[in-house]
Amino acid sequence: xxxxxAWETVHLPHTWxxxxxxxxxxxxxxxxxGWYRRRFDVPEEWRGRRVHVEFKAVFQVAGVWVNGxxxxxxxxxxxxxxxxxxxxxxxxxxxxxxxxxxxVLDPGIAPANETNVAAYGGITRTAWLVITPLVHFPNNxxxxxxxxxxxxxxxxxxTTRLENPSxxxxxxxxxxxxxxxxxQVIQSLSQNVTVQPNQIPEIVQASAPIPSPHxxxxxxxxxxxxxxxxxxxxxxxxxxxxxxxIRFMSYDPAGGFTLNGKPILLRGINRRQDYGFxxxxxxxxxxxxxxxMIKAMGANFMRTAHYPQDPAVLDACDRLGIxxxxxxxxxxxxxxPPATDNTERVYTERFPRPLMDNLKQQLREMxxxxxxxxxxxxxxxxxDLSRYHYPEDFVELSSAAHELDPTxxxxxxxxxxxxxxxxxxxxxLVEEHRLHPERKxxxxxxxxxxxxxxxxxxxxxxxxxxxxxxxxxxxxSDAALLMEGYLMQWNALPWLGTAKWCMFxxxxxxxxxxxxxxxxxxxxxxxxxxxxxxYLGVADMWRxxxxxxxxxxxQWIEEPMVHIVGxxxxxxxxxxxxxxxxxxxxxxxxxxxxxxxxxxxNCDTVELSLNGRSLGVRRPETPLQEWxxxxxxxxxxxxxxxxxxxxxxxxxxxxxxxxxxxxxxxPGTLTAVGQKGGATAKDEVRTPGPALRLxxxxxxxxxxxxxxxxxxxxxxxxxxNGVTVDDARPWxxxxxxxxxxxxxxxxxxxxxxxxxxxxxxxxxxxxAIVVTATSPGLASGSVRIxxxx
Length: 789
Description:
Helix content is about 15%, strand content about 35%. It is mainly β. Among the domains are: about 35-130, Galactose-binding domain-like (Jelly Rolls, Sandwich), CATH 2.60.120.260; about 140-245, Sandwich (Immunoglobulin-like); about 560-685, Sandwich (Immunoglobulin-like); about 695-789, Sandwich (Immunoglobulin-like), CATH 2.60.40.10.
């Protein structure tokens, strides 16, 4: 047979675009064919059952062969597929699975370019060998629709599909149990079924009314479950469990969105799945950690920008309580020509029919896969298409979504033909709402401020060398200050849902105005690293939070918190004073100058101390003063649009920042202590000394030895007192010993603001995993994690 001994051994999920020299793909990266091979055994005792291979996602065209014979093909990179390979396997023998992956750019497959998204070729999610009985529950076999009526009762309709791939009719019985979260049976339904040969019938069962149902919400994400069991001659042969929730949403033109009859302000964020040095090959455990971080920030709403995401991510949204706008990858399909003084950017071409058919296929697969998630409230149909002049295409997509799922809204940044209007492209939003109060509005990409974590005291830099019109790179603290102004305005518009762009720094391969990581040397020269990355997140590519994360948290959670904006150390180089106020939020300045210190907190009062000496107790800023700070900075942002030229009536933060405007700098420890109803929250920043050693921290001390669990490892460059040296930029090399493997394309990583990070994944063996980090001139560090079966 074919000698594959020289092939690289990889673990799923995998992408060939995870490189060592850039955390995300860059312009001109490989778009072509990749091949995977895997041997698997099929024991003789499986004979009479069905053998399937399941792929959660392959980007973007997959061809599958078993033992040299074609098993099937799938088009689309974000939804999964299952192939029955029973006729192709050899019983009691080793079998060969081959997958050919084609990610060549294709104008008939969405996303048809990489303008607003980065493409990562490979088997980017998990794959499984699935063994079933002859007659079985196929993929996406159960659909649950829970209808809540006004008399405080709910009815559950369960539609179940069965598959009989044989040439003979088969008699079976389906038992459907509706259970509460503790496993107590609420209702049980049973039905005998004759399954005709080579058919996939649908069996519809409806429960009796469930009185006083426990409703699902972000604050109380209660899940019921449907347990479906298939019986053959009285013996259970197949069983699947489907979690679901009972909830209902509506919209009031004056008060906005309501959930379960109560007003809810959608406090949202956009999530792209790509991760530094992993690309889109993100393990499920990492995706679930993302959702936990979003929930800890206080968000109750998330948009899956710009594609269907891992089912494990949506499961986490169900369990933790985050409403979801999930969308297909319909992204700037045809680039419009650049605007000139006399023209407007418009789409000059209509979607070709093959692309429309592919969009509808991906829409159908998304809805069939995900319709049981109570977290999902919106099916998204397109991004950045506000000037697309063919609304009939979005009518067609919206109608297709409603036919598949009439219980949810549709939305798109497109002509006003969907249920929800994406207000991102409405500069005169208040006037638009006055004229059309009946529309549902969500501004789903506000605040796209480019900033790098840890950039304090550095100048603004406008433009890449080749593109002077590119985005302004802002110090992290100033980007957060600009977010304050938007949040003030949103609070004056109760009818508006919002989602901040973006949760994490991500890749943006071909954007004409790509944001870039930049730094300034002591002689004032600006240098560039990783120029095709999108630094618009409130956390960086490693999920380390920026100041904006803590701003949102201060507005969205109830538990007392406090965060000092910026850092506390001497100036690091020349400043462009003409482009920056003398005092900036959290900025560094020369030792002789006073500082403005900004603190984000939801406490009633905050006391600031420097080296143990109180600098006073403050109450929150007034809205007028806060707006003045915002106006002073907004002129540096690339979109000083109409919406931000006037403070709206009622605009104010729920928890304004606390500000000390004239604090003389001296090295040491700056401490903030907040008081709220008898509870205390504390934060401090310290002046670092020279870099001395590396300290490693793991987010968990134990892993499950399941070949899938993941621990996040943070490496800090610290001084003799353990303070992170936030202007340190050494290269850090990671290594691992024991039953674990480092994830990603790079083991040697450039630290950002004194921190680098990596993930380590368990294998199927237990034992001690030791991760070590080294860097020339610094003492090494290590961390120990225990893996247990």
